[in-house]
Specification:
The chain has helices at about 40-55, 75-80, 80-95, 105-110, 115-120, 180-195, 215-230, 260-265, 355-360, and strands at about 15-20, 30, 40, 65, 100, 150-155, 160, 235-240, 275-280, 285-290, 295-300, 310-320, 320-330, 335. The protein is of the alpha/beta class. The structure holds adenosine-5'-diphosphate. It catalyses: ADP-D-ribose + H2O = D-ribose 5-phosphate + AMP + 2 H(+); CDP-glycerol + H2O = sn-glycerol 3-phosphate + CMP + 2 H(+); CDP-choline + H2O = phosphocholine + CMP + 2 H(+).
Amino acid sequence: MEETAEFLQEADPYFSFGVIGDVQYSPKPNGLSSWRVMRYFQQSLLHLQQAIEEWNREDPSPKFVLQLGDIIDTSNRKLGRSVEALETVLKEIEQTSIPFHHIWGNHELYNFNRDFLKRSKLNTSWMHEQQNVHSERHDETGSHPDYYAYHFSPHSKFRIIVVDTYDLSIFGRKKDSQGYQDSLDFLEKAEEGEQNDNFHVGSNRHLVEFNGGLGSKQLSWLDEVLTYCDQQNERVIIAGHVPIHPEAKRTPCLAWNYKDILQVIQSVFGSHQSVVCYFAGHDHSGGYHQDSHGIHHVTMEGVIESPPDSNAFGTVDIYEDRMVLRGRGRVKNRVLIYREMHPSFCCCLPGLTCEKNTNLK
Ligand SMILES: Nc1ncnc2c1ncn2[C@@H]1O[C@H](COP(=O)(O)OP(=O)(O)O)[C@@H](O)[C@H]1O
């Protein structure tokens, strides 16, 4: 639901956070993308500065910011200025004490490999919450050797999960690595399957290199974290670079295995009721859809395609039964009512073992 600013003035929220995506900073001049859309490279850093200034002025200030990826543009690599560009944006972010949670997009992987990103300030998994809720091998810094995903709880009733939508990807992985081979195999198999899928034909094909997906280990990890959240009656917000719902974007920007991801977060067996919203970037024109399970899919408009007199960021206020997105510039205000939680449900029948429960560590 879109709302006017007056409607948004409510009582004190539990907490608030900032959200922004696709800054794509580069020192290069403004110009048209391959899709004939203007990209404002000269303004993107100023837009980021403005967002930070506004968040700094807010009272109470946002507890954290979700930076949805593509913070610098691929052109920096061609200019030999990837590290310098990254330092430039990080210097802006140092102007605030509000912690940023960084997500990796395709442009991070065009500029750097995963080993570099892991060692860089774009790896914020050290802010993960130490919770023994999953069997997948996340080390003491919150990192998993194969993918970049973690979770944290900013409030006793809420959890944020950062996912890696380029876990399956041919970018950022060495060509002789298992991850690269698995991604190629996935694409090949998915392309065969897609021939019968009328939704993704012609220019709307999403099985393209600049999208990616979640690998099987990350999907099991996500399933385990969500099971924990269900047990704790937590509401969950997930953030990743690539949209995961075909109705929440306007272009081919969609995760390769979006159906597998939706199946986990919607949980066809009815046991995961915790996810209320998925935030994405990637499609600079933005998008929104509430799916059949009541999960809100918000694709944030990209900073890089925001004209000088506009911008694209927001502050999200979290309440008991809703979240309110106060959009700035091209981002619309939205009141997002949470899906209903039903009493705990278990698929076990007496005498049978429930797979979900035996998976718990
Ligand atoms: N077939 C397409 N038609 C229109 N726009 C597209 C198409 N494919 C990608 N885009 C646009 O490209 C942007 C994402 O691309 P991005 O990650 O910046 O990589 P690139 O710089 O290679 O375009 C999105 O805004 C998306 O809308």
